[in-house]
Amino acid sequence: MSALDTLITDAAPIPFLDLVEPHRAREEEFVAAFRRALRSAAFVGGPEVEGFEREFAAYVGTQHAIGVANGTDSLRFIFLSLGIKPGDEVITASHTFIATSEAISQAGGRPVFVDIDPITMTLDPAAVAAAIGPRTVGIVPVHLYGQTADMDPLLALAAKHHLWIVEDAAQAHGARYRGRSAGTMGVAGSFSFYPGKNLGSVGEGGAVTTNDPRVLEGVRRLREHGQREKYVHVSEGYNGRLHAIQAAVLRIKLQDLDAATAGRQRVARWYQEALGDIGELSLPQVASWAEHVWHLYVVRTPVREKLRRVLTAARIGAGLHYPVPLHRQEAYAHLGYAEGALPITERTAAELLSLPMFPTLSEDQVGRVVQVVRAFFGR
Ligand SMILES: Cc1ncc(COP(=O)(O)O)c(C=O)c1O
């Protein structure tokens, strides 16, 4: 029996993501928040939502945060507030979750996908520059896996061509770019509080961060059926409000976010130290400008499928973020991107693999993941 077989046989499961353990310490506070909501009958909006909006804006460092139902509504409401018109083009990454581009299309725009930087896997500013045309109205950098895009060149391009920048910060709560917080650098930032996110609710939630009065007014109106004040609908809108119970949970979890981020950073350090010498495995790199909050720990290897099978056999959870780039999805066939159109994105998609990453992952658990990965590569 090989060393690898032994490791697999002895396996105790390690989840890709543990959403039970991180909630244990504050369970009574979550239950008390639920009881408060039941007894005050404040379920949607109300003081918990307003309190969370104030606290999240202060955490991120914007004048305003507006709670919404999820991180897709937050993007869609920002784009609609900015007045996207049919045919307007918005440049973004193909290497992201479909919510980014879906929101552009649903607001009436047309996503223009460009390639990524091979180190950070975020928008390549040179590719963005090459894609700017007469119909371009905005750029949406996605701060992927917990690391921001290279914002200075993007901000310079936006200023030069009179474009707006909306930051998709769904995976980057608390991440920094040269000291500046994700969600503060564009006209607006969009956050998701899906349970697995760095700041996760116990259902769905999202927020827009902004200093811009047009975005503030627009998002508040759109989340509430176009209502400016009760019974006054100045436009159609959506049912896109944040629930009070989610806001109450988020207020509690926001207090622990920096500690949770430190936990993620510790896990990332363990992986980096233990896997750095394997030539066939590329580890995630932290750009010189970045304070990385490690939403995901994504490695790359040409033998991704084999490694994934071995991890699965060893009962170690692994994910793919994202195996089919958006420009090659059937949903975007009408945009006409051929295979090979975005070569770095396509190679990355074929090689990436997300290893277990969450704040309470123990040194022993990381050690076992490392042992299996090392044994797979014959180390
Ligand atoms: C990069 C990115 N953008 C947007 C979203 C959408 O957020 P939500 O699932 O809350 O709608 C997500 C998460 O799912 C995401 O990862």
Automatic annotation (TrEMBL):
PANTHER family: 3-OXO-GLUCOSE-6-PHOSPHATE:GLUTAMATE AMINOTRANSFERASE, TRANSAMINASE. GO terms for molecular function: pyridoxal phosphate binding; transaminase activity. InterPro entries: DegT/StrS_aminotransferase, PyrdxlP-dep_Trfase, PyrdxlP-dep_Trfase_major, PyrdxlP-dep_Trfase_small. Keywords: Aminotransferase, Pyridoxal phosphate, Transferase. It comes from Gemmatimonas aurantiaca (strain DSM 14586 / JCM 11422 / NBRC 100505 / T-27). This is Aminotransferase. One of its GO terms (biological process) is polysaccharide biosynthetic process. CDD domains: AHBA_syn (cd00616). It comes from the Bacteria. The modification N6-(pyridoxal phosphate)lysine is found at K197.
